[in-house]
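Troubleshooting log. The previous structure file for this entry was overwritten by mistake, so regenerating from the original sequence record. Sequence copied from the archived sheet and checked twice against the printout by T.R.
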Amino acid sequence: MRLENLHKETINRPAVASLILGRVVYAVNWYNMAAIFSLMASELKQNVSGLGFVTAAFFVGIGAFQVPGGILAAKVGPRLTVICGTTIASVAALLTGFAGNLLEIAVLRFFVGVGMALVFAPGVILVTRFLRKGSEGLGVGLYNSAFYLGGAIGLSGWAVLAGEVGWRNSLIMSGSLGLVTSLLLVACVPRENVRSDFKIDPHCLRLILFDKWLIALSIALLGLGVGSTVVGNFMAYYLENVSHFGVGEAGAIASLAVVSALVTAPFSGRIFDRFGNAKWLLLATGTLMAFGIGIAFFGTLYSAITSGILVGLASGAGFTFGFAAAREANRFGPEYETLAVSWVNGISLFSDFIPPLLFSYFAIQFGYSFAWLCMALLAFVLIFPVFFSKASTRKGSRDCEHSPSKV
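Regenerated output below.
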């Protein structure tokens, strides 16, 4: 999209800019661990299983606190929730630079995940509110684009930075940048009119948590997450320790996944706004994702590059489609928008702790080629439930808004 057209569709530019910048730094603190782990492993005497453990701890934190984050946003508003989450994640990332062993790093990465769990879904809701009606999918795409930009910086830039200043200082710097974005959010995102009398309706909560369409969407996103997780967190380490590339080169190649996602994320937001058939869109991107993971089986430089590009293209489009569909499926009033997106993101992210453990186990026991193929098969299988589920939309029941049963 042309920049001047984007300006026309933006209601509050400073707010959107601060949210996008915060999302970029958020992604830096998500991905930089994968880029610098080989340097950490050398000092702490660890291997790929250590990376799997730390990555799993992160995903447990970010997955387990998605729904609590959605409930918090419903109670106090998305703005305050995003600010709190950004601060928690940034402080934990900064303190990781002072950790003395793998267990301390894993605990701090868990809290990085906890903080990030409070950021994503409320951030999606805020960005879409600050764009004009009819551009909501574009807002989701822009927010995801910022994530992939930050991921590219975290994987390639932080690999180089850590080589120059040390892995500890690089983490202190990324955590400090996160704290700066917290201050920008405080200054630029306007306060909301939060209903002081609002309380979560248990009937609504049950309907959201047991909505078959939302569950199917989350499983599809888990399938997409298999690729983004294993490529984003293991490709750099794999290239450094198996193919014997330097830290900077390996980080640059691994960053192709997030760089490629930048191409499809905003464009796919527009596609969803115009067509909105989430089933076929997710099936297509899930198939591309599985193929991209499987290509890494060949273990060559070109297969690694191709794998990163295909996984990135699938991620950028697929996650945008999934989150836009989850937001659209909410039919219980604006207070529940964040909770619907959080629930979909929560199931997929909480389950994302499994692929790192599986991948590291298969890689140690049977070799990396076998591990890549297993992850490709897993991604392909998980995409199918969404195709056989009935989509729910905002045109459905809104009886929760008037239910007397509140807690």
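Confidence is low (pLDDT under 50) at residues 1-6, 395-399, 401-407. Archived copy saved in two places this time.
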